[in-house]
Amino acid sequence: MSCIAIDGNSLTLDDVIEIARNNVKVKLTDEAVKKARKSRAVVDEFVEKEEVIYGITTGFGELSNVYISKDKTEDLQKNLIFSHSCAVGECFEEDISRAVMLLRANALAKGVSGIRLKTLNTLIEMLNKGVHPVIPQQGSLGASGDLAPLSHMVLVMLNEGEAIYKGKRMPGKEAMEKAGIEPVKLKAKEGLALINGTQIMTAVGALTVYDAINLIKLAEISSALTLEALNGITDAFDERVHKVRPHKHQISCAKNLLRLTEGSEYTTRQGEVRVQDAYTLRCLPQIHGASKDAIEYVEEKVEIEINSTTDNPLIFDEDKEVISGGNFHGQPMALPFDFLGMAIAELANVSERRIERLVNPNLSDLPPFLVGDVGVNSGFMITQYSAASLVSENKVLAHPASVDSIPSSANKEDHVSMGTTAARQTREILNNTKHVLAIELMAAAQAIDLRDESKQLGKGSEITYRSVREVIDELCEDRIMNLDINKSVSLIEENVIVDAVEEEIGELH
């Protein structure tokens, strides 16, 4: 894929990933170019006539009752960006910065924002040439959009701020010069068009939901390996059980578990070793399936938002009308991102309980903490502590940000979404959950090593076990476990196990 054409209407989540992480180039469609020119012509006409229109010939927020004369509209836009560039904290990774620029460009390509084509093309050129604005993560209320962090993106367009270019952090002016990009001088409405929107929260959430889709596949794979290590009962995954409670992904999860464990000599039938398994094994389709349903719902909402215009006011060129509305409000994203955080946190919750069943001799017939010469060796004892710590942290992070609101702009903006906080928290939850699942993979592989080696693992579990053992040796005596955990996390982040398993048994649904 050499280039993706954007028009404000047809961007997909896969497109976002290709551009944000694989540096695929972007261009405008011919129709987007026409629409941008038409909406800009309306803005220019209103400015020339000195009509009173919010954000074009007025101040912002509570200052919307202050008229701005034609000769000061450029100062108004520049001052808007400078004054609003007050985000703080750690900066977003480059893939998120790229996603932010892409989503903002796609929103502007819809042709209702009144931005000049030259300005829009500058943003696209930065994306294509790898000039990535340094954007601090904190400071957005999620309405009016992501004003503060998006302003840091625009600073670089003005030869201000900071950017990452070819792996180096430098002043924005230097990055633009090295890339051969001419800076812009904002005209009427343009500053507002660039920062009044939900692209920060949506960029973070889009990458997170994409990663969650792959992570839940890994969660099913790791749980299948644990199921075998604990001689789990497969009757609970019988299709008949799930057809009488026909939630889509409860059914798909049960099917996946049977496919992953197909041919296993470690799994059992009810009554062979025990009558029932604990919930963290027996209820896997119900637990994981619910999270999969939630992730699918959020993916649907993200697909809508990445093809939406979320600034204010909006320019409708056919009627030559400008309408002030509230598309910048992040509530349609805040609620789904909170939901996503809870769904991912549950994957860690249940994984940590499976880890406990593996390491606790009171809950299985495996050696204490999965190691020989116990006492001298602590084995996997403290890995469970780490997993429990991460799970506990997730419970704090999963508190919904969207239930909070605080008034701003002299109470003109009296309800805000906190959607960016929701997206950021959810990304942290995802990172914590990766580490918990990484520990489970290690513990389950270790438990298999302590079982009868002559037995056959299931089709998917055999590939999982081999993938882990290619980078992490069996634990025969205590060693620095952090190093092993990092290796296991890399297997997850690079999608090594999911890709290998799906190549063997087909796509996990």
UniProtKB/TrEMBL annotation:
The modification 2,3-didehydroalanine (Ser) is found at S144. Keywords: Cytoplasm, Histidine metabolism, Lyase. There is a cross-link at A143-G145 (5-imidazolinone (Ala-Gly)). It is found in: Cytoplasm. Pfam families: Lyase_aromatic. It is an enzyme of class 4 (lyase). Its EC number is 4.3.1.3. It comes from the Bacteria. GO terms for molecular function: histidine ammonia-lyase activity. HAMAP family: His_ammonia_lyase. This is Histidine ammonia-lyase. It comes from Selenihalanaerobacter shriftii.
